[in-house]
Design brief:
about 550 residues, eight-stranded parallel beta sheet, two-stranded antiparallel sheet, about 10% strand, T6SS Phospholipase effector Tle1-like catalytic domain-containing protein
């Protein structure tokens, strides 16, 4: 465990893309049923491109993140049906252009602490899509921590400058430069660049675990990372008990454009859409009721960026129709994104948001192909996910599962149980939820005291405040009675995270938090009653 573990756009290098391998690496004794995938490929005619961006300092090891765990369940051996890509976390690779080993090590440390080479991570994912995208493909992107921010930046880059055709590698650095520019000229050039060089594609699914946007010494936000009308489904699992200063969550904020002129963007009809038939075959998602009308105030610099984003979307004809779900889970950063416990640990908090994310993939009908038998290890019953994601029964709020509270939709065979020791005492997904919810919270301020150094440094934080320009009876609607603002916090000192919308009845909390709150002290691993770190002066919206 490292001290800070977990938690000019000229380009001289590119991360080597880790494409899915087609060669058969399975042991010859592996049963053929591992090739049985869900959902049924006959239902979905499109190919899926799945990109996974790991968290800071994360890569394959003995305490894998949820990004690796999800990637391990994906079908990887048929690129005609599904093509997958994995990128290790920020700060995990060496830069080949740096000859001196000690210098390469310094760059790795700086990358891990400050996200110094974020541009290379984004461009590497962009190159994968550029080289592999075909009309009709659905793009699904996952990420954890700064890897989640990388995923959002990639989606934002595709929205602003489009996706270049294959074999245009020399144009990628210039495209990123156009994307990252925030001045008026840059936005206008981005629009012209997109029309001249790119194709217009959408992001089908953006699934994230606890996005952290602390990139560089000055946390400058990249365009379309807070909201993006090009994303169809946005799913975000957030850590309720994380309280480090440098791990402030980056939430979704949907801006309105009622009073903005249409200066930038690509007008609808100016560019051919690559996959209209595929998208029209399925029902359009409903926009989030809370975020649909969201309008926020920013500091002068941030407000300018938001205005440019809104003007770009207004001129492009984009509509804020993204289906948004941001749900809070018990635990700290790695209790949501994974990587806090060893891989062979039977129960852990991180398994809950992993199951939730996979279930959301099926509910959104993404068509992502999973190996049926590998889903059992995460505590999921494949029969409850396909052919249709079924409603979940109530959680048993006791040590023993209530009789008849849940039934398995897929039988566990003796052979399956022998291969997967996790299944020996498997009762139901609801029982797994309860067992996982009672496990230990992994607080890095306790496990790695070096993080306290950053707790005494000044930080800029974002918060929701009452808007005096609107009467109180309108304060239930985001943007009419409330607005975003910034303030300098001179010392965080382990202060709890701020929960936006908690006074608006809009905080979605996973039902396993209730299990943990209602459990007796002797049932919890810490042997004391659980109280969520944020002030619990609101009524949450419990979600399954």
């Amino acid at each position: 465990m490292t001290l800070f573990g977990r938690g000019n756009h000229k380009r001289a290098f590119s991360l080597p893309p880790e494409y899915s391998r087609v060669d058969n690496l399975l042991d010859p004794t592996t049963p053929a049923r591992l090739e049985d995938v869900i959902p049924d490929r006959k239902i979905y005619k499109h190919r899926t491109l799945v990109l996974c961006f790991d968290g800071t300092g994360e890569q394959f090891d003995d305490d894998n993140s949820n990004v690796v765990n999800l990637f391990s369940m994906l079908k990887k051996d048929d690129p005609e049906q599904q093509l997958v890509y994995y990128q290790a976390g920020i700060g995990t690779y060496s830069i080949p252009q740096i000859a001196q080993p000690w210098m390469a090590k310094v760059h790795k440390i700086l990358d891990m602490m400050l996200g110094h080479h974020l541009d290379a991570h984004v461009m590497s994912g962009y190159e994968f899509l550029m080289q592999n995208y075909s009309i009709g493909d659905k793009i699904c992107i996952f990420g954890f921590s700064r890897g989640a921010y990388t995923a959002r930046a990639l989606a934002g880059m595709i929205h602003k400058v489009g996706l270049l055709p294959r074999h245009n590698l020399q144009q990628v650095p210039f495209a990123y430069k156009m994307y990252s520019r925030e001045d008026e000229t840059g936005w206008r050039l981005s629009s012209n660049f997109k029309k001249s060089f790119s194709i217009d594609v959408d992001i089908e699914f953006l699934g994230l675990w606890d996005t952290v946007a602390s990139i560089g010494l000055i946390n400058r936000r990249l365009p379309f990372t807070s909201s993006n009308s090009n994303v169809r489904y946005f799913r975000h699992a957030l850590a309720l008990d994380e309280h480090r200063a440098k791990f402030s969550p980056s939430l979704w904020t949907h801006e309105t454009n009622d009073d903005l002129s249409s200066k930038f963007g690509v007008s609808r009809g100016e560019m051919p859409k690559s996959n209209p038939k595929v998208k029209d075959q399925e029902a359009s998602p409903e926009p989030s009721p809370i975020l649909k009308h969201s309008h926020t105030r920013q500091s002068s610099t941030e407000k300018t960026l938001h205005e440019y984003e809104q003007e770009y979307d207004a001129n492009s004809g984009s509509e804020p129709c993204t289906s948004v779900e941001e749900v809070w889970f018990s635990g700290c950063h790695c209790d949501v994104g994974g990587g806090a416990v060893k891989n062979d640990t039977r129960n852990a908090l991180a398994r809950i948001p992993l199951r939730w994310m996979i279930r959301e993939c099926f509910k959104a009908k993404t068509g992502i192909l999973f190996h049926r038998e590998l889903l059992w290890k995460a505590g999921l019953d494949p029969g409850s996910l396909a052919p249709r994601a079924s409603e979940r029964p109530p959680v048993p709020y006791s040590n023993q599962s209530e009789a008849g509270s849940s039934t398995l939709n897929s039988p566990i065979t003796p052979t399956t149980s022998q291969q997967n020791p996790f299944l020996k005492d498997f009762v139901s997904e609801e029982d797994e939820d309860r067992k996982d919810a009672l496990t230990r919270v992994n607080d890095m301020l306790k496990k790695a005291p070096g993080w306290w150094i950053l707790e005494v440094l000044p930080q800029k934080i974002k918060y929701l405040k009452a808007d005096p320009d609107h009467p109180d009876d309108q304060a239930r609607e985001v943007g009419r009675g409330w607005s975003w603002d910034y303030k300098i916090c001179w010392a965080n000192l382990g202060r709890a995270r701020y929960l936006p919308h908690k006074h608006l009845g809009g905080v979605k909390v996973h039902r396993t938090v209730k299990i943990r709150m209602e459990a007796e002290a002797h049932e919890l691993a810490e042997r004391k009653k659980y109280v969520p770190r944020p002030k619990w002066n609101f009524k949450p919206l419990w979600v399954e």
